[in-house]
């Protein structure tokens, strides 16, 4: 369902004046030349209720209700009938996952990615600990997406302290040819991609290659994570988060995008810079009371594409952010 009308939203927000966003590139130029930081990007869309969601992934279920899945507590779940008012409804899993104890936790599951294919719901999730790449990605399925209906299928992919990548922050995409792929990655050597077998949900045995999609120079601590690939307008768009997460009002997260005609890349930004060399167009960043927006996913709803993410305010913990995505005349996404 669409967001409340602009008039309704303004009753819930302090009024302010900002320039209309015309295109991603012209908006960036306007910000650099004339605007204050508070005018750079639209505010998060109005949501209410239990909206303390970190690394959110949202799906619309077959019955029309929305589910938001997020980090912690066996994958926290919230639901809404109108995409505005959200309630906490429990967790995806009803008991700890014993197999994940080798990665430091059986209950604190991170960064779920949920989608619906072939009449069932699929979830990829992360198990790890801060500042460690002794990590793994797990896989689960559900007939309805509801709390307690998820069956876990264990580990899909992993990394160790001897590897130069980090197997967390998974995202599943089915390409234009019907092939399944999983992107993932955080810090270290950046964002990776592997091919998935639709029959098992795990890596395709006939293609064990690990593709490189994005990285950043060591001078900025290699801070690139939370990949999400979204197909639109004949492009594959790679959304990632740059900089520092999970530090409340001190977070510096921002949402960045590049694109490619091929699912395996290369992904370039609006200037032609390769994301494997630190490229990326910033489409959302700290401004005013919206701090460190990132941990994003993209959802295609009945009224268009949505960017779903978390952010912080000066006063409190993480919050759910939802904005519509639009595309400029050159096909670059921007928030509305």
- Helix proportion: under 10%
Largest sheet: 5 strands, mixed
Overall 3D geometry? Answer: globular
What fraction of the residues are assigned to beta strands by DSSP?
A: 35-45%
Low-confidence stretches: 1-38
Classified by CATH, the class is Mainly Beta
> How many discrete structural domains?
1
CATH superfamily: Glycosyl hydrolase domain, family 43
Strand order of the largest sheet: 1-5-4-3-2
Oligomer: single chain
Radius of gyration: 19 Å
Query: What pattern of helices and strands is seen along the backbone?
Result: HHEEEEEEEEEEEEEEEEEEEEE
Structural class of the secondary elements? mainly beta
Q: How many helix segments?
A: 2
**Would you identify the CATH architecture?**
5 Propeller
Strand tally is 21
Q: What is CATH's topology name?
A: Tachylectin-2, Chain A
Mean pLDDT: 89
For the record, give the distance between the C-alpha atoms at the N and C termini, rounded to a whole number: 16 Å
Please explain how this structure is put together.
The chain has 336 residues and is mainly beta. It has a single domain (6-335), classed as Tachylectin-2, Chain A, CATH 2.115.10. The protein has helices at residues 6-12, 24-33; strands at residues 48-49, 57-60, 66-70, 76-80, 85-91, 110-117, 120-127, 135-142, 151-159, 171-174, 180-184, 191-196, 211-214, 224-232, 235-242, 254-260, 281-284, 291-301, 304-312, 319-327, 333-335. It has a 5-stranded mixed beta sheet with strand order 1-5-4-3-2, with no helix packed on it. The protein has a 4-stranded antiparallel beta sheet with strand order 6-7-8-9, with no helix packed on it. The protein has a 4-stranded antiparallel beta sheet with strand order 10-11-12-13, with no helix packed on it. A hairpin with a 2-residue loop joins strand 6 (110-117) and strand 7 (120-127). The longest helix is centred in the N-terminal third of the chain and has 10 residues, at 24-33. The radius of gyration is 19 Å and the shape is globular. The protein starts with 5 loop residues before the first helix and ends with a strand. This is Arabinan endo-1,5-alpha-L-arabinosidase. Residues 1-40 form the signal peptide. Belongs to the glycosyl hydrolase 43 family.
């Amino acid at each position: 369902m669409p967001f409340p009308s602009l008039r309704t939203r303004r009753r819930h927000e302090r009024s302010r004046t900002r320039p209309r966003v015309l295109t991603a590139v012209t908006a960036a130029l306007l910000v650099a030349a004339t605007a204050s930081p508070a005018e750079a990007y639209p505010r998060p869309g109005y949501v209410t209720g239990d909206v303390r969601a970190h690394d959110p992934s949202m799906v619309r279920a077959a019955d029309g209700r929305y589910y938001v899945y997020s980090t912690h507590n066996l994958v926290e779940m919230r639901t809404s009938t109108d995409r505005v008012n959200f309630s906490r409804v429990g967790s995806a899993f009803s008991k700890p996952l014993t197999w994940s104890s080798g990665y430091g936790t059986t209950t604190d599951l991170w960064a779920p990615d949920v989608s619906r294919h072939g009449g069932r719901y699929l979830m990829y999730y992360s198990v790890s600990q801060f500042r460690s790449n002794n990590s793994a990605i797990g896989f689960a399925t559900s007939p309805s997406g509801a709390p307690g209906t998820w069956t876990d299928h264990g580990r899909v992919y992993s990394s160790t302290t001897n590897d130069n990548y980090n197997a967390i922050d998974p995202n599943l995409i089915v390409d234009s040819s019907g092939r399944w792929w999983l992107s993932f990655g955080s810090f270290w050597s950046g964002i990776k991609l592997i091919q998935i077998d639709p029959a098992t949900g795990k890596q395709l045995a006939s293609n064990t290659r690990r593709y490189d999609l994005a990285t950043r120079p060591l001078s900025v601590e290699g801070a690139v994570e939370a990949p999400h690939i979204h197909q639109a307008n004949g492009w594959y768009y790679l959304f990632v988060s740059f900089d520092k997460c999970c530090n409340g009002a001190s977070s510096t997260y921002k949402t960045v995008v590049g694109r490619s005609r091929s699912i395996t890349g290369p992904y370039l930004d609006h200037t032609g810079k390769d994301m494997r060399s630190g490229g990326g167009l910033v489409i959302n960043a700290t401004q005013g009371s919206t701090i460190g927006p990132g941990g994003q996913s993209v959802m295609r709803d009945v009224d268009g594409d949505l960017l779903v993410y978390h952010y912080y305010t000066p006063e409190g913990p993480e919050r759910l952010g939802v904005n519509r995505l639009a595309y400029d005349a050159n096909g670059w996404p921007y928030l509305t």
